[in-house]
Amino acid sequence: FDGYNFKEYRFTPGAFGVGDSYISSIFLDSTGSTDTFYVGTRIGVYKFDPIKEQFTLLLKTNGEVGSILKDQGQRLWVIAGKKLTCYNIRTHKKQIFNPRNHFQPTSVCMTAEGQIWVSTADGKLCRYDPSGGPGGEFTSYDLFADTLHQPTKWIENLFVTRQGLILAGTS
After folding, report:
1. Which pLDDT value is given to residue 1?
2. Cβ–Cβ under 8 Å, residues 101 and 136
3. 131 contacts: CB under 8 Å, gap ≥ 6
4. What mean pLDDT do residues 124-129 have?
5. Distance (Å, rounded) from C-alpha 4 to C-alpha 25?
6. How far is CA 112 from CA 72, 76, 140, in A?
7. 133: pLDDT confidence band, cut at 50, 70 and 90?
8. Cβ-contact 78, 85 below 8 angstroms
9. 42-81: burial string, b at 16+ Cβ within 10 Å, e else
10. Are 40 and 64 in contact (CB under 8 A)?
11. Nearest alpha-carbon partner for 67 in 141, 156, 131, 151
């Protein structure tokens, strides 16, 4: 919507259409000369070119995309199907952080310094350390360690303030 007109994009079979009408997440990358949108669906992550009005499937997922983030290293951090995937836009390589070996991710954010943080279904904030061995490692912090009566620890969303604080929205 540009203030005057409303444009609707729906499932369109073909090379440049969005592969699903169910849009579950959107990430705006405004670091380049033109804005680029990354759109999460039940099928995967699409890159949307607003000039050409075309969608390109970048990453096929096994489940609904709940969160998308692009970091300073040209990588997309995607949460879909209870898994965290790091997808390198340049090399098209992906690394999947399986919940059996790591955690069940719920949201992802990045600080101004470029640190990646992931929230979990069991109330933890996990900081990514790329130098921690092959594929990096995560350091976990239990947000509810000192809370006596917390019915649920599920963290829905993360948000980083200008002051560098990470806000966690729970359910």
Report:
1. 63
2. no
3. none
4. 95
5. 24
6. 10, 16, 20
7. low
8. yes
9. bbbbbbbeeeeebbebbbebeebbbbbbbbeeebbbbbbe
10. yes
11. 156
Segment 41-65 mean pLDDT: 92
Task: Give CA angle at 56 (55, 59), nearest 5°.
Answer: 130
Ramachandran sector of residue 3 (left: φ over 0; alpha: ψ -120 to 50; beta: rest): left
What are the tokens at 126?
Answer: 């996990």
Strand partners, 39: 26, 46
Question: For all residues of the chain together, what is the average pLDDT?
Answer: 89
Specify the residue for token string 């990358």.
Answer: 29
Please give the structure tokens belonging to residue 94. 């992906």
**3-state class of 130 per DSSP?**
coil
Q: Which of 41, 55, 54, 159 is nearest to 109 (CA)?
A: 159
121, 104 Cβ separation under 8 angstroms: yes
Compute the distance between CA of residue 83 and CA of residue 106 in angstroms, rounded to an integer.
9
Q: Which residue has the tokens 């300073």?
A: 72
Select the more confidently predicted residue: 129 or 12.
129
Quote the pTM value.
0.89
SS (H, E, C) 108-153: EEECCCCCEEEEECCCEEEEEECCCCCCCEEEEEECCCCCCCCCCC
The proportion of the chain whose per-residue pLDDT surpasses 90, expressed as a percent, equals 61
Beta bridge partners of 18: 11
